[in-house]
Amino acid sequence: xxxxxxxxxxxxxxxxxxxxxxxxxxxxxxxxxxxxxxxxxxxxxxxxxxxxxxxxxxxxxxxxxxxxxxxxxxxxxxxxxxxxxxxxxxxxxxxxxxxxxxxxxxxxxxxxxxxxxxxxxxxxxxxxxxxxxxxxxxxxxxxxxxxxxxxxxx
Length: 154
Fold this sequence. Notes:
The protein is mostly helical. It folds into two domains: 4-95, P-loop containing nucleotide triphosphate hydrolases (Rossmann fold); 101-153. It is built from seven helices and three strands, in the order βααβαβαααα. It has a three-stranded parallel sheet, sandwiched between helices. α6 runs antiparallel to α7. The radius of gyration is 23 Å and the shape is elongated. The chain starts with a strand and ends with a helix.
């Protein structure tokens, strides 16, 4: 799987993303709206991001995160973004990570779907009990924690 982060310059995304760690997870960062009056700001943002990426550990399989300026409005460098995505996939295949990651992703989806189904079924089965406990919580007869114990144990 490829994590493509789409950002724009001048919105504080560069430093905020770094602070939150999102850029550390990205395989490719595309700076959109790199056109017209914004082109210089976008180039500066890309350079700041490239510099900041040197402080992060390398991604799985020793892939170096790429930063690309593009403009979807004027269809500039969109082909380059696609080419880098294809390079990433090929790199993952060479390192035997593509299929491993795909299998992990399939299992993650399965577990997420299973948890959601269990929660949905549990709530459906306990709907009447939950409604009774909600009323007791609202009336002040029990605390929310006591309510949880009542649903799980009741």
